[in-house]
Amino acid sequence: MTPEPPPHDAAPGPAPGHGTGPAPGSGAPARAGAAPPSLTRSPFESETFTSATFVTVGRGPLLALAVVWLVTRAGMLLLLLRDSLGIGGVAGEVHSLYRHWYGLFAQGTFPPGDVTWQYPPGAGLVIMSPGILPWLTYFQGFVLLTLLADLAVAAALARADSARLTHGAWYWVLGLPLLLHLPLARYDVQTTALAVLALLALKARSPAAHRIGGALAGLGALVKVWPALALIGTPRGRTTRDAWASAAVTALALLLTLGALFSESLGFLRQQGDRGVQIESLGGTGLALAKALGAWPGTVRFRYGAFEYVGPYVSTIGHLALLLTALAFIWLLLWRMRARDWTEATPPDAALAAVLLFTVTSRVISPQYMIWLLGLAAVCLTSRRTVMRPVALLLLPAAALSSLAYPVLYLEVVAGTWQGLGVMVLRNGLLLAAALLAARRLWTSTVTT
Asked: Where is the composition biased (Pro residues) (predicted)?
């Protein structure tokens, strides 16, 4: 049996608050004879950058964190109620589509033959969840449960931050509003909450916590697939066995239960396989550039619940995206086999790198995908040993640009104007840079050369 690496907390060194020198950013003079700070390291890796650039979550600032959460979420809720920004209609997916699916679930079936239903059967649990609040309308119940999931993520991150000079909770609380009101009208916040809680459980020393983390990741995988990647960086040995086995048992048990209670539980596989190249994907951006330059004669068409490109070479680009996804998966397997240096930050760092790679190689990069990435980056930032700080910073402007792309300038994006095209090139360029940087930093920090 391969022994697991010792936890980070067991590393030698002074306990927090008992060091011999002043805390970074405290304003106290440096200790005489102390070595000057290294000038060769990246500023993203310095202790000064970590503690001085972001607010520390502690007993006092928790109230500030709560106030900021309330203010920002009130603003997001106001935007959602007005729902007139840009193209508008952001809440329409909850009002019509989710509500329609809810009615089908009440009849004991997943949406039969519905090309817009492209989600694993566990997603039905989220769609049905407003039913537990019968005194509210479906829309009110959905938004309330989304806010509660958002609050659970913020609270869990704050608890993880409480003993360290880190800033994961602030990153989530301030980063999510960059997507405006979209997070409140999609079920990706609930999915992200499962992945975040799974990764935080994996940081504990208890095997029971590892099994809980695996169960949460397995549940998330049956809701929207990608949370399974939360387990890609678990340390070898008992942690991996406990977490992966728990995930498999949870996912299989839920799949069998939903299959027994509802018909058409696997119908999503047919719809998912028929998807084309969405206008917001990297491949779609390439086609938009070619069309703007007069080198491609294709058009945009609304299919499978999204705007996709139709014309020559589209199927080739779609197949290329699938090939790149497969290559990304092979690279992740190779990394896992070669990785030798594990820290407490490795699981969330690996999860963020994996989801970024699968995002940029996807035929679909919807703006709500940014919710996943912000949540995973926030978990990374709960550890001082993370190597993903510059990646997390790249994701913030990418999220803001995603809001410009939808809903603010969505008509420009669909029409392929230079304004809409510029937003998509910048957003997807940032995502591609973040994915490549995350892969490189994950490899160099864990693979012994």
From this structure: 1-15
